[in-house]
Amino acid sequence: MSEKNAVVGIFSTHVAAEASIKELQQGGFDMKKLSIVGKEYHTEEHVVGYYNAGDRMALWGKRGALWGGFWGLLFGSALFVIPGMGPLVVFGPLVGWIIGSLEGAVVVGGLSALGAALFSIGIPHDSVMEYESALKSDKFLVIAHGTAEQAAQAKSILETSGAVQSDIHQGIHDTLCQGIN
Question: Does residue 56 lie within any of the structural domains?
Answer without folding.
Answer: yes
